[in-house]
């Protein structure tokens, strides 16, 4: 499980996680303006803006009022309030089955807020932090049990997580994609072409590394499936996240984590350079646009 964090790191983590969750809920309410919401809360709209950007953290009472104004109730409200009161316990980061998906998401956002670097290996699809809204919707909407409202809420939450790599002090992110991720048909060309163009744009950010690796050649450990490696400031240990069809788990044992670190290094050695990777993506865009 996750070890206890230094107080300063925990505070930064809580503020960023809370801001991401609140921002996602606000963005989901397209009929509510920042000024109108601020008036309802009795605060200046610039104060509300700082809350949503994670520059200032509101206390639990303010968060409760904000969620009430946004109409957030039930489990979602309790999950956000748990973060507002101090964040989820480490034990909630590993929650099996569908009932724990939302809890796991809070844990993921917590780690994305704390991490000093993040590496993701995604052999078959574009990672969530790099997905466009349409690409994310094309994936999430395939959940047969999700209502249209559920789909839109989950899409908004996924896009809200991208704040981690787009904020003023962005999380350095290394995205290792299998070549099938850019050659897939998720959502068809009308979804894939804008998604591929977005990959090219986001890769121009200094803190984003994007490289493609082959998966149809000789054996390598990445063929066993995706993983995400979170590195934290010392003395905190690194953690690995593994996602499955309906469950997710975390690996924090030092020997196992070291194996994943070595695998990430191996995949970087096997992968095409960033320039060659972007050239391959541009070729794929051109091919799709001309057929």
From TrEMBL:
Residues of the HTH cro/C1-type domain: 22-76
Listed PROSITE patterns: HTH_CROC1
A Pfam family per the record: DUF5753
InterPro entries: Cro/C1-type_HTH, DUF5753, Lambda_DNA-bd_dom_sf
Record-linked SMART domains: HTH_XRE
Protein name listed in UniProt: Helix-turn-helix transcriptional regulator
Organism: Amycolatopsis samaneae
């Amino acid at each position: 499980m996750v070890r206890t964090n230094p107080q300063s790191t925990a505070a930064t983590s809580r503020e960023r996680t809370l801001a991401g969750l609140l921002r996602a809920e606000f963005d989901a309410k397209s009929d509510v303006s920042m000024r109108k919401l601020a008036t309802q809360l009795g605060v200046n709209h610039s104060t509300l803006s700082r809350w949503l950007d994670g520059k200032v953290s509101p206390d639990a009472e303010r968060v409760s009022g904000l969620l009430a104004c946004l109409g957030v109730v039930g489990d979602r409200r309790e999950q956000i309030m748990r973060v507002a009161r101090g964040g989820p316990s480490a034990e909630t980061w590993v929650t099996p089955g569908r009932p724990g998906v939302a809890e796991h998401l809070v844990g993921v956002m917590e780690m994305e807020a704390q991490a000093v670097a993040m590496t993701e290996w995604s052999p078959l699809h574009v990672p969530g932090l790099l997905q466009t809204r349409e690409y994310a919707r094309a994936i999430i909407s395939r959940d047969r049990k999700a209502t249209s409202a559920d789909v839109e809420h989950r899409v908004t939450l996924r896009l809200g997580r991208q704040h981690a790599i787009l904020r003023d002090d962005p999380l350095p992110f290394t995205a290792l994609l299998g070549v099938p991720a850019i050659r897939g048909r998720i959502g068809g060309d009308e979804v894939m072409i804008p998604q591929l163009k977005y990959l090219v744009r986001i890769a121009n950010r200094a803190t984003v590394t994007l490289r493609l690796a082959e998966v149809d050649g000789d054996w390598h450990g990445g063929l066993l499936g995706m993983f995400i490696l979170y590195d934290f400031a010392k003395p905190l240990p690194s953690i690995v996240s593994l996602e499955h069809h309906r469950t997710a788990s975390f690996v924090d044992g030092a020997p196992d984590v070291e194996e994943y670190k070595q695998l990430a290094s191996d995949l970087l050695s096997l992968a095409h350079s960033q320039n060659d990777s972007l050239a391959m993506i541009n070729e794929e865009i051109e091919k799709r646009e001309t057929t």
